[in-house]
Amino acid sequence: MAILEVKNLNLGFSCECGFCQALYDVSFSLEKGKMLALVGESGCGKSVSAMSILQLLPKTAQITSGEILFHGHDLLKDKNIQKLRGSKIALIPQDPMTSLNPLYTVGNQLLEVIKIHQNISGERAYQKAVEALDIVQIPCAKDRMNAYPHEFSGGMKQRAIIAMALACNAEVLIADEPTTALDVTIQAQIMKILNDLKQNTSILLITHDLALVGENADDVSVMYAGRIIESAPSKEFFENPKHPYSQALLRSIPSGKNSELQTIKGQPPSIQQKIFGCRFHPRCDKAMNICSSKIPNFEEISDEHFCACFLN
User: Fold this and answer.
1) Rounded distance between C-alpha atoms, residue 236 and residue 245, angstroms
2) Does residue 312 lie within any of the structural domains?
3) N or C: which terminal CB in the chain sees fewer CB atoms within 10 Å?
4) Tally of domains in the chain
């Protein structure tokens, strides 16, 4: 059962050259107790899609159509969306280094979040904060309540951010590149924590790291230039990718010590660039004449496996 659904979301930005569309009919769903990975190159629209859910968009952004359903309730029509932020839907931001206020202890910042979203204070709030730090495996949690962010390593800062989401009993975690700037060992620890949380929390993982996706995600949706072009259960996606872009992404993962790293020719288009037909066709080795004039439908090609490509 889907706890969060994004349906036919269209979004653009006002810029000097007029209105530039950034998202085209984006649709995906996150099931309870699952991790959905939204993957693609930088600039493809992953983070914008995630920020649309929380309506944390710049003033120049405009959602022109679509729905964002949380338990069937359209968040785009909810004037009290700020009540859901941090409580029911929480964000693990891309850069933990700048997400904590350096002037306040980690404990104070945790307690502030708990007081705002849980409406509890005093000893109960303090115990809840310590428990949250314990869950994310920060050692000596009680002592660390009095530490300042500069006394935490990068990995511990990221754990503290996750603890803030846990302390508020969030039902959905949006993890936007949660392992950026962390070394491989710490990445694995952060992803294990997120995996352990899936029993009570659904996770939307925004990433370009397909290695992390293969080891952790239950489902995968691939974005390219503002569109979802393939969606499948993780195992099916890695064993049988159908879209040429998905295949190219998987070929770009280093597979061995002496293997040659394969790249995707060209560059992703900017949002100002007008492309007719399939937006990937200028970079696609398998492009046909129809690809430059018509947009392929996003269709189910096998059980729970969807793809937008004329080859399928």
Assistant:
1) 16
2) no
3) N
4) 1
- 37 is a domain residue: yes
What are the average pLDDT values for consecutive 10-residue runs of the chain, which has 312 residues?
93 89 95 94 91 92 95 88 84 79 93 86 90 90 93 89 85 89 82 86 91 91 96 96 94 71 84 90 94 95 94 88
User: Bridge-partner residues for 30, per DSSP?
Assistant: 4
Are the C-beta atoms of residues 152 and 160 closer than 8 Å to each other?
yes
- Give residue 258's pLDDT: 60
As to burial, measured by CB atoms within 10 angstroms (0-12 exposed, 13-18 middle, 19+ buried), residue 80 is exposed
- Torsion angle (degrees, nearest 10) of CA 199, 202, 205, 209: 30
State which residues form the domain around 275: 2-307
Contact partners, residue 45, CB within 8 Å, separation at least 6? 22, 23, 26, 223, 225, 226, 227
At 259 the pLDDT is 65
d(CA 212, CA 218): 11
Question: Per the structure block, which two tokens stand in for 20?
Answer: 């530039």
Q: Is residue 167 a part of any domain in this protein?
A: yes
| The predicted structure's pLDDT at residue 18 | 87
- CA separation for the pair 178, 126 (Å, rounded): 26
Scored b (16 or more CB within 10 A) or e, 208-217 reads bbbebbbebb
Mapped onto helix, strand or coil, the DSSP state of residue 113 is helix
Is residue 177 included in any domain, yes or no?
Answer: yes
Query: pTM for this structure?
Result: 0.91
What CATH code is carried by the domain that includes residue 36?
Answer: 3.40.50.300
* pLDDT single digits (tens) 20-30: 999 999 999 99
- What's the residue count for the chain? 312
Residue 127: count of CB within 10 angstroms of its CB? 12
